[in-house]
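Example record

One chain of 163 residues, shown exactly as stored in the release files.
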Amino acid sequence: MEQNLLDSTDLKLLDALQHDASRSNLALAALLHLSPPTCLRRVKRLTDAGWIERQVAVLNADRLAALQGQGLSALVEVTLDRQGTEHLDAFEARAVADGAVQQCWRVSPGPDFMLVIQARDMPDYLAVTQRLLTQDANVRNVKAFFSLKRAKFTTHVPLNLQA
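Predicted structure tokens for this chain:
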């Protein structure tokens, strides 16, 4: 399914799922004024075509931090010494394989990568940096910013619902 094959109903369906993917098919169909079988077929088609990557539960990080001590979020800029494709790919593979890395972005200009790292505490963060940053001789510069407060977090992708 190409982008130009997404109609306004598909876009409304994607938007509704972004807001609450836990709705039953019946509730979703009623919300969009579709028959339940049509709604189910559309969701399956959008999923099979890769428009819906996955459905997950977004956890309350603050409540979990109080329970498990996972209270340290860091935004980390990483600049590599050598930026050849093989070096960038190798660092990226290591970063995305580490469970503490929630997000890994290749960026330009400036640093080569921006990482979002979630750690229990400072000693746990230190262990992550030693695994990912200190032991790699190709890491030239690291700049970390520690979150004091999360003012907004969303996974919502804005859609043009007028299409």
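Notes: The mean pLDDT is 91.
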